[in-house]
Amino acid sequence: MDIIILGIESSCDDTSASVIRNGYVASNRVANQDVHKKYGGVVPELASRAHQKNIIPVVDVALAEAGVKPEDVSAVAYTRGPGLMGSLLVGTSFAKGFSIARKIPLIDVNHLHAHILSVFLQAEGENKPMPPFPFLCLLVSGGHTQILVIKSHLESEIIGQTIDDAAGEAFDKCAKVLGLPYPGGPLIDKFAPAGNPDKFVFSKPRIAGLNYSFSGLKTSFLYFLRDELNKNSSFIDENTPDLCASIQKTIIDILIEKLVLASQQTGIRHVAIAGGVSANSGLRRAIIDTGTQQKWQAYIPEFKYSTDNAAMIAITGYYKFKQGVFANLHDAPFARNKA
Ligand code: KG4
Ligand code: ZN
Predict the structure, then answer these.
(1) Which atom of ligand 1 is nearest to 142's Cα?
(2) Enclosing domain of residue 222
(3) Does residue 211 share a domain with residue 68?
(4) Does ligand 1 have an atom closer than 6 angstroms to the CB of 275?
């Protein structure tokens, strides 16, 4: 019998639904919320209202595209956290209602766990190389930056993480001081190819072991721009591509340096990246180039599965379903991961 998982993701500002059939993506629909652009960041109250409006149509389209009727679904998986509480509640309530109505298992999914498993996403008939266990994963999103050893579909160990800002925050905050709208990471990526990555040099943090720090970089970027703007008020306009290329290179160098160290320390030579920042074209290239130098095998999720999506929730649900790991109706969403 087919195993059909309906996945729901609503942790931040994207409402998404996906169907995974027997471990393959049958559909993945994402409704983005443009309403936040003019505020320079996600407004939680507006996000939850937009989720409420989008959730049913997005699920309907995802089911239709997969050719699946509600009664065919084996289990419903949803993002329990971390994320914005009001946003999480919309997906959680929908999933619980669906599970009660259809009398099918409910599966709670940790958003970060799901990002990691996005490297396993493919449509039926594709033959993507999949990482063997254990593999290393650099998880880089808007709120988290971690290096993990992935031991199985359901087990992992964090061996390094940021002590302050996440890499995505570094991209977004640097973009903001350049006057770029939120989220700035993709815009830095867009301007960087036309710039010289060695034009401006920013100092890198000295943090022991496998941990990261990005708050100093953001501050030094801010002070650098302030000094240059005092000399020339058009400095940013005249140098946008070079500034984007240089800051992007600095962030990538910081990320890759610790990943190389993690591979050397653990002896693991299968290395994946995941999370929104893994959509960055410079980072995608760097992980492959470093892999060639270091004799790694690199694994990168498809671009559409790098940023928030429900396919990663559904595939995590699929692996949990196969192991009989289910949720309870009284499980509440959580905004932050437990330390
Ligand atoms: O994983 P994600 O979609 O949401 C969270 O779980 O946080 O990650 C969002 C982050 C944002 O900081 C965004 O600027 C960054 O990923 N991002 C990028 C790119 N696409 C998304 N950063 C750099 N280059 C990109 N192409
Ligand atoms: Zn995410």
Answers:
(1) 7
(2) 135-300
(3) no
(4) yes
330 SS3 class: coil
Quick one: which atom of ligand 1 is closest to the CA of 248? 23
Distance 10 CA to ligand 2 centre (A): 10
Cβ–ligand 1 distance for 83 under 6 Å, the answer no
pLDDT less than 70: residues of the chain: 338-339
Say which ligand is closest to the CA of 310. Answer: 2
Query: Is 142's C-beta closer than 6 angstroms to any atom of ligand 1?
Result: yes
Determine if ligand 1 sits within 6 Å of the CB of residue 189: yes
CATH of the domain at 250: 3.30.420.40
Query: In this structure, which residue's CA is closest to atom 24 in ligand 1?
Result: 280
Distance of alpha carbon 192 from its chain centroid, rounded?
21
What does the alpha-carbon distance between residue 200 and residue 22 come to, in Å, rounded to a whole number?
A: 49
Pocket flag, ligand 1, residue 120 (CB < 6 Å): no
Contacts 24+ apart (CB under 8 A), 324-332: 325/107, 325/154, 326/75, 326/105, 326/106, 326/107, 327/80, 327/105, 327/106, 327/107, 327/108, 328/106, 329/96, 329/99, 329/100, 329/106, 331/80, 331/108, 332/92
3-state secondary structure of 196: coil
What local confidence, expressed as pLDDT, does residue 58 receive? 98
**Using CA positions, which residue lies closest to atom 19 of ligand 1?**
186
Model pLDDT, residue 40 = 80
Angle formed at CA 9 by CA 7 and CA 11, multiple of 5 degrees: 155
Encode pLDDT of 269-324 as tens digits.
Answer: 999 999 999 999 999 999 999 999 999 999 999 999 999 999 999 999 999 999 99
Return the pLDDT at 339.
54
Q: Are 248 and 168 part of one and the same domain? A: yes
36 within a domain of the structure (yes/no): yes
